[in-house]
Amino acid sequence: MKTNKFVFAAVVLALAGAGLSASTFAQTPAPSPGGVKAAASAGPSEAEITAMSALAQPGENHKLLAGLAGSWDYQVKMWTNPSEAPGEWSGTAVRKPMMDGRYFVAETTGKMQMPGPDGKLQDMEFKGMSIEGYDNAKQKFVSTWTDNMGTGILMSEGTYDPATKTFTYFSEMEVLPGLKMKVRETIKVIDNNHHVFEWYENRGGKDVKTMEIAYTRKS
Fold it and tell me: Per-residue pLDDT for 139 more than 60?
């Protein structure tokens, strides 16, 4: 624990030199400008360093994410128009823990059909990657997503409902310059071997489901 305290002390002192107090990380009310200078001069207290060290450890919420680790087959349904039949495709995903279970990285592959330069549908290899975790300071689940169909990084924050075994994430994506869309994602855990992901886009103030992915753990 002593090593962790020295590491955290170094980080906080560096931030304090930039005008930030350790209380920012201890989730206490923001101090007055005078308090910032006083804290920066005094440095973090032993209690604050101990609290920060505790926040750096994985806990029960990380164990919830660990339940989704493993190798999966998935089936996708995607609606470009909710009134029409969805397009369907399949693939595989592998989710692994990293940094002693603080985060989980998932790599996804599959084949889908997309319009080519001539407008005709053609097979495309899909690749995506996410990093998921639980931020003890924010008390929220956090996630990033990237894939080979764009150049942005989608950042989401969410919660977990133990009654329904459902993760719910919220984010905002910019599909075209200046055109932003709010997104809601849910992951419902059916059992240890099955979970279902749903993607909702806010269109005109109403959430519309445009994608559903059913995951089955590989034997």
Answer: yes
